[in-house]
């Protein structure tokens, strides 16, 4: 998950309304005495003429790991008249303390302390905005929930209002096998890096040992809470939408894993709100792929000027939602650009959207006519899903789904006739089913594909549902084998035009490896066709929107990226292998995220990551996720390494976790520990 800067298409802006001064390091003392490390970019003279502040609050190390990306954004904001501040969360980077888990109340309490600290600085007016992508997008919303007087507006990118529904842990109530262990292993390795002795002095080693001993592998907590309980409700702002009165600008991309939440935020947040969805992966829109990238930092300044300076920029008079309506494409595992046009919506209420309903028939058709009552058997094929791409693409080659014809024989498919007219989709598709199961525990996965006239199948959405969660994700119940039930499978949001002559295809299966951890026994789902088994697509009448097609953004620009020396280039492979003798499938995903040196502070840092997902045909209990990291960090004779090894397996009763951490100083092993935990399966 390298934080890269694709600057080839950026216009580098060096001439600003304000000269920029930088405070490379400053300590912010929390109410309990813990000191957090920060870097500040200021307009020159702000101590005599105070300015509003913009806060980014992350666990990803301001002095090295995010230094490149910080260098193109924070000076840009400072140059436009803002104090821009980047803070390392407690227990990360150069900050003191331990980070025991994601999004804890202590993280939010610290943020409130930071806001109070900002209010007292002679260079700050006391008015603050928060911006962040992913983790920083989450905590911006979580802090806004507290309604601190200093916080006047938020820009949240690639985040969610619901920690259980839309994050790397669970999807549709299913364990997100492709990401839960991977993300835990990522933070396991990231948190194990030490403070910088050039910043904190000789105490760095003692603090490092404490950080290594006390920071747990987060997967143990995540897997302990397998349904939506108070653990997940804490930090999920959808628990009280009425508290969300701070203005929110919600941003994401169709290729990102978090876009569903934007539609909920636009519908339910109480305060002023705007939404922006491009074709992008999990990245800032001025550097994101697939293109087109946009002048997003200019949009941020317009937002900040309106809410923090009281300048009438016109941004709140524009449509509530701006989205890139993608054109149909052939399947590929990487796209540099996606053709399409900008479309606009003045408001959003999901229930009021027009729906195109297709009946699912026993003959394998999707039809607008009513289907006859019949049954269709959905058999478990454990290797179904290997060609689905990654759950949350970051823009590496190989992230996107392959041609879904490779999955077709592993699932049950239902297809329309060629479309008589183009179909314009915007919103959240869903599948309603009536079904029976032969097992008490089961899941169902749905894939929606655009089928070109030549037969190529491009996946445009997918969704999953743990069928033990029919009464909600909070109160799972066993199925009664043979009994009929109804269920709704929510698919990921779409924004696309399906051309005339193309067909739509829905694929259903009781398996989806490695996204869904498999059920404990192979389940056969008997689908009952008729009025209760339908596909619902959110259709948009483009002819009713005269403004569609206009280009509302400036070209991408940013501050100059800081100097860096490439010591090792990035590389990646993503292989799917089949062992004929043992009937075993292996997805092997390796990323060398490269190694860099930052001349400004002399820091060198690099990382490699390998994730291997293994399963045997006919044996759901053979599923294994195995994630390893190697990270290096140092300068001159201060050289550190962190190695982690994380495994997850299961039998019918329990999940088994094993996490090993090793730390090295100048090639000498200075710390080693293994965490082992057994966690009962809870309707998973």
TrEMBL record:
<dbReference type="GO" id="GO:0008239">
    <property type="term" value="F:dipeptidyl-peptidase activity"/>
</dbReference>
<dbReference type="InterPro" id="IPR050585">
    <property type="entry name" value="Xaa-Pro_dipeptidyl-ppase/CocE"/>
</dbReference>
<dbReference type="InterPro" id="IPR029058">
    <property type="entry name" value="AB_hydrolase_fold"/>
</dbReference>
<feature type="domain" description="Xaa-Pro dipeptidyl-peptidase C-terminal">
    <location>
        <begin position="301"/>
        <end position="545"/>
    </location>
</feature>
<keyword id="KW-0378">Hydrolase</keyword>
<protein>
    <submittedName>
        <fullName>Peptidase</fullName>
    </submittedName>
</protein>
<dbReference type="Pfam" id="PF08530">
    <property type="entry name" value="PepX_C"/>
</dbReference>
<dbReference type="Pfam" id="PF02129">
    <property type="entry name" value="Peptidase_S15"/>
</dbReference>
<dbReference type="InterPro" id="IPR013736">
    <property type="entry name" value="Xaa-Pro_dipept_C"/>
</dbReference>
<dbReference type="InterPro" id="IPR008979">
    <property type="entry name" value="Galactose-bd-like_sf"/>
</dbReference>
<dbReference type="InterPro" id="IPR000383">
    <property type="entry name" value="Xaa-Pro-like_dom"/>
</dbReference>
<dbReference type="InterPro" id="IPR005674">
    <property type="entry name" value="CocE/Ser_esterase"/>
</dbReference>
């Amino acid at each position: 998950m390298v934080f890269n800067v694709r600057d080839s298409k950026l216009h580098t802006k060096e001439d600003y309304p304000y000269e920029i001064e930088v405070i490379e390091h400053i300590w912010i003392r929390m109410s309990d005495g813990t000191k957090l490390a920060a870097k500040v970019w200021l307009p020159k003279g702000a101590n005599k003429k105070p300015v509003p502040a913009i806060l980014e609050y992350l666990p990803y190390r301001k002095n090295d790991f995010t230094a490149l990306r910080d260098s193109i954004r924070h000076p840009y904001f400072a140059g436009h008249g803002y104090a821009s501040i980047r803070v390392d969360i407690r227990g990360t980077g150069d900050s003191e303390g331990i980070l025991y888990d994601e999004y804890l109340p202590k993280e939010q309490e610290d943020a409130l302390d930071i806001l109070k600290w900002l209010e007292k600085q002679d260079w700050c007016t006391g008015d603050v905005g928060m911006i962040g992508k992913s983790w920083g997008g989450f905590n911006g919303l979580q802090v806004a929930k507290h309604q601190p007087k200093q916080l006047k507006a938020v820009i949240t990118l690639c985040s969610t209002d619901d920690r259980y529904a839309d994050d790397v842990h669970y999807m549709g109530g299913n364990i997100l096998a492709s990401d839960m262990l991977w993300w835990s292993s990522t933070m396991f390795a990231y948190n194990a890096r030490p403070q910088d002795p050039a910043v904190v002095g000789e105490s760095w080693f003692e603090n490092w040992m404490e950080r290594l001993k006390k920071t747990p592998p987060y997967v143990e907590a995540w897997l302990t809470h397998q349904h939506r309980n108070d653990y997940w409700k804490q930090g999920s702002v959808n628990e009280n939408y009425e508290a969300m009165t701070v203005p929110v600008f919600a941003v994401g991309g169709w290729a990102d894993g978090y876009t569903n939440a934007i539609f909920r935020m636009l519908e339910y947040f109480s305060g002023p709100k705007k939404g922006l969805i491009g074709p992008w992966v999990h990245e800032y829109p001025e550097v994101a792929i697939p293109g087109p990238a946009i002048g997003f930092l200019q949009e941020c300044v317009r937002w900040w000027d309106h809410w923090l300076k009281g300048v009438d920029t016109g941004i709140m008079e524009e449509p509530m939602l701006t989205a890139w309506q993608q054109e149909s494409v052939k399947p590929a595992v990487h796209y540099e650009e996606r053709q399409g046009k900008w479309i606009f919506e003045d408001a959003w209420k999901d229930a009021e959207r027009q729906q195109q309903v297709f009946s699912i028939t026993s003959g394998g058709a999707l039809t607008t006519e009513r289907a006859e009552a019949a049954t269709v058997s959905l058999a478990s094929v454990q290797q179904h899903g290997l060609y689905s791409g990654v759950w949350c693409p970051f823009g590496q080659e190989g992230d996107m789904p392959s041609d879904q014809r490779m999955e077709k024989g592993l699932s049950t498919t239902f297809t329309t006739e060629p479309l008589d007219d183009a179909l314009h989709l915007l919103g959240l598709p869903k599948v309603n089913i009536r079904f029976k199961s032969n097992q008490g525990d089961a899941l169902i996965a749905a894939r929606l594909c655009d089928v070109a006239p030549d037969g190529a199948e491009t996946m445009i959405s997918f969704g999953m549902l743990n069928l033990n969660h029919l009464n909600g994700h909070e109160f799972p119940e066993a199925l009664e084998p043979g009994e009929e039930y109804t269920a709704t499978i929510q698919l990921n949001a779409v924004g696309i035009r399906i051309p005339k002559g193309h067909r739509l295809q829905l694929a259903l299966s009781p398996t989806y490896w490695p996204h869904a951890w498999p059920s404990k026994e192979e389940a056969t789902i008997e689908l009952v066709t008729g009025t209760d088994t339908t596909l619902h697509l959110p259709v948009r009448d483009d002819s009713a929107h005269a403004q569609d097609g206009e280009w509302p953004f400036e070209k991408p620009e940013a501050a100059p990226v800081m100097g860096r020396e490439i010591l090792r280039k990035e590389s990646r492979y993503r292989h799917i292998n089949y062992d004929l003798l043992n009937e075993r499938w292996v997805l092997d995903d390796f990323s060398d995220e490269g190694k860099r040196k930052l001349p400004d502070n002399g820091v060198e840092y690099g990382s490699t990551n390998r994730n291997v997902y293994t399963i045997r045909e006919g044996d759901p209990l053979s599923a294994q996720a195995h994630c390893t990291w190697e990270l290096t960090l140092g300068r001159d004779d201060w050289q550190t390494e962190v190695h982690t090894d994380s495994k997850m397996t299961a039998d019918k009763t329990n999940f088994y976790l094993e996490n090993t951490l090793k730390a090295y100083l100048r090639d000498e092993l200075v710390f080693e520990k293994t965490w082992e935990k057994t966690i009962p399966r809870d309707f998973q």
